[in-house]
């Protein structure tokens, strides 16, 4: 026994002298594991400690034995990300980077337990576990693990995933979920030499991209922030195609490249994307877009984006919505505007709260959550398309005219934006002598200073902004300012809800609204069909 003890002690000593870097060098880094598919949280050490923080919610204690039915926050997004197992994937990546076996052992243990507890179609398995997005996102960590664990249960699980991914009844064509499904199916097909799966993924992807991204590079999902996600996923898809010895279809690469300008135009001068549709006000693109040649761009998908100049935080910026009826990540925001000027938000949408099935979530989708005109006494008809019917581009001024029949009669809005001497003017009317009313949601930092005689002043310290309203060149009063209550809310970040000031106009056959940032006392006149604001003149009809 003594003779065996010396070599054993020596062996243990030599093992202790192997550095983490040397151990990592013995592990092959794989394309499936390396990349930017992992979320920012949790870290590998968090997972090893048994705590995971998902979708910005507080850390949840997993424990050693994981409860796969867990839903501690009753949050759909949390459940989907939990079941995606990407947090498990952090362990395999850490194994590749450090060579420490404990990470791979725990990843294997977690995944084997998940496979046993979540059989497809088995009684007790939650249905959402096997819906399209968890399935496609889960494929990446499973493929990553398969590069280091050769086990029949893992291969069988990936086979089940592939069958679901290839099922045409479950495919989300023309949507970012479809792109993720194609990436996942391509990955499994290439990993196991299943050309039929790889062929299907490649052919479907081209069709989906052509529906999801138009020839101008605009995302058709009606929330610009998703363009960043889709652009990133297309980079992954094209990289994986090349790694699988496949030619990238020209239509995919061309439309992906065009998306960069769309993201640039939908990014405000403060560096954050304009929060239209299911888009948070805290979204930074964090991708190289380049600088487009034009300051103003109109997209057939239903957007106008304009600014004074590129590269200047104080530049004015505006967005206008029109186009196809609401779908996917869109809101009922047609004819709506947002406005940013002099380095700050002026007019904002209610924003994106969450995907939870709550009354507040559904309210954020409604017209009342956006800066739009409503037709008094008429019922709103959801998912109605709108048209941009006239434009007038100038270097220092742009004007647009839009219309739809979302209330059963023609609803028309004209928008004029003047640069240099910043102002926005909006004219609303409806056919058949119907009266209109409009809603103006101001940034939460702006508080009411005064409200009388058709003039509402809001301010934040020394900064002031003035709203004036006219009907047939006569100033009209009776504006109601609501903070909180039914409409005075905004959700600038995920799961947040805060009160803000919303100006609700009186009803009139036509309403001309003028927004003047930077002052509480603009000199305004309206006569002879012409409006003059601090020396800046324009037609009372705008366009």
TrEMBL record:
Lyase as UniProt keyword: yes
Statement: the UniProt record of this protein carries the keyword Lyase: yes
Domain of life: Bacteria
PANTHER family: HEPARIN-SULFATE LYASE
Signal peptide: 1-23
Name of the protein: Heparinase II/III-like protein
InterPro entries referenced in this protein's UniProt entry, alphabetically: Chondroitin_lyas (IPR008929), Hepar_II_III_C (IPR012480), Hepar_II_III_N (IPR031680)
Location in or out of the cell: Periplasm
Domain Heparin-sulfate lyase N-terminal: 56-288
UniProt organism field: Nonomuraea antimicrobica
All copies of domain Heparinase II/III-like C-terminal, residue ranges: 326-504
Keywords linked to the UniProt accession: Lyase, Periplasm, Signal
Broad class of the protein's primary localization: periplasm
